[in-house]
Amino acid sequence: MEPRTVQFSRTKLTELMIPSYANFGGKVHGGLILSLMDKVAYACSSKHAGTYCVTVSVDGVEFLQPVEVGELVSLDASVHHVGNTSLVVGIVVTSENVKTNEIKHTNNSFFTMVAKGDDGKPTKVPELILEDISEMRQFVNAIKRSRVKREAADKMHKEEEEFIMVDDMQLLENQRCKIQFTADDEINDLFSDT
Ligand SMILES: CC(C)(COP(=O)(O)OP(=O)(O)OC[C@H]1O[C@@H](n2cnc3c(N)ncnc32)[C@H](O)[C@@H]1OP(=O)(O)O)[C@@H](O)C(=O)NCCC(=O)NCCS
């Protein structure tokens, strides 16, 4: 299996935002943008892998600015990292006003995809050829992101396991919630001041 460059699978998708994509507020649905992101991640990862790929996880989805009907949304996807059977695809989403040519940066996300063979099992992907510092940096950052995510998940798992009613109640101070359990008067009495 020959190694492949980042450029080999770089994929750009541009779509006009038509009125049927709008929500009740007149802006484009976030879900529509997510669906386009998934599509471009699939195209890019499958091209690199030479086989079909599935989405395993998504990181960094934040809608920084609203997208308006009539704008041209472009999604630029490239492979940042490859493991044995997985690939990380970085996606930059921008939205252009066709009248003013103003371009808004909407979103930066990372889709982890896994290549599947004809038997439906994960299958090995080609190595990635890194041709400049920027591509090397993206590869390294994907390794760091994965490590940080694993550490954060472990920490959160511990926090969830260690729920201690009295201590954790402090976290509810100044929060916009009211303790009103439906079937436990003792608990309601305990927290009647909150
Ligand atoms: C993700 C999936 C392929 C893992 O299958 P598996 O038999 O457990 O395979 P493995 O444990 O060997 O994992 C395969 C790769 O996925 C990676 N992976 C698995 N879970 C992951 C996660 N949550 N985040 C990131 N990578 C993950 C592994 O690190 C491994 O990568 P590598 O080969 O590059 O080291 C399998 O659970 C699956 O098919 N999930 C459904 C995906 C799907 O259908 N998506 C569309 C939803 S509609």
Structure description:
- With 194 residues, this protein is α+β, with helices and mostly antiparallel strands.
- The protein has helices at residues 6-9, 30-49, 133-161, 165-168, 185-190; strands spanning 4-5, 11-16, 53-59, 72-82, 86-96, 103-115, 128-129.
- It has a domain at 4-134: Thiol Ester Dehydrase, Chain A (Roll), CATH 3.10.129.10.
- The protein has five helices and seven strands, in the order E-H-E-H-E-E-E-E-E-H-H-H.
- The strands form two sheets. A five-stranded antiparallel sheet has the order 2-4-5-6-3. It has a two-stranded parallel ribbon with strand order 1-7.
- It binds coenzyme A.
N/C terminus separation? 63 Å
CATH superfamily of one domain: Hotdog Thioesterase
Ions, cofactors and other bound molecules: coenzyme A
Structural class: alpha+beta
Poorly predicted ranges? none
Radius of gyration over C-alpha positions, nearest whole angstrom:
22 Å
Mean pLDDT: 93
Percent strand? 25-35%
The CATH architecture category of one domain equals: Roll
**Distinct helical segment count:** 5
Order of helices and strands: EHEHEEEEEHHH
Summarize this structure as a short list of keywords or feature phrases.
two-stranded parallel ribbon; Thiol Ester Dehydrase, Chain A; binds coenzyme A; 27% strand; globular; alpha+beta
What is this structure, in a nutshell?
The chain has 194 residues and is α+β, with helices and mostly antiparallel strands. The protein is built from 5 helices and 7 strands, in the order βαβαβββββααα.
